[in-house]
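Q: I'm writing up a methods section and want to include an example of the input and output format. Could you take the sequence below and give the corresponding predicted structure tokens, formatted cleanly so I can copy it straight into the document?
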Amino acid sequence: MTTILEMARVETPLGTVHCAVRDGRLCALEFADRWQHRLAWLQRRLGPLTTRLAPDPAGIAGRLTAYFAGSADAFDGIELELFGTPFQRRVWTALRDVPAGRTVSYGALARTVCVPSAARAVGAANGANPIAIVVPCHRVVGADGALTGYAGGLERKRWLLEHERQWECPALPRLSAPTPPPAASAPLPRRAAAVS
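A: Here is the clean output for your methods example:
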């Protein structure tokens, strides 16, 4: 059976972003320079694909435009279809709970998903994230607050974090001193749940 994906291209301040939607749920969002890799990844998971361009599949293109125009809640309520291991899906769901304008360390995220010793596994899951920006893997930093790997490139990561700073209290520290990770006993606030 062939899977039908609706796809769109969105021009952003960081370059072209592509998205893929299946049955009304976002299943991939990637920068143009990584899009062919992401399409191959989708095909390995879904089998034969039929793609069709749509102006705004599931409203994702409009939400991306709103996000880049400064709307802090542009991604609230987006339904996702996450393809990954159960651990990866837990990490990706927890990422959506990190508020815009804040950062979290890999170790703090590992504690959030109840595997405190799994900071490296969290990093690997973060790197495998198929839905850039909406599943905000760019909000994860090193334990010392340093910007660390981002599949889209560190300059994009820096730009995204600076863009999101406008939505938080002006007293929040800048990238050179990111917001400290939450205590292990303090869960992050919940956002809309992902569909798995």
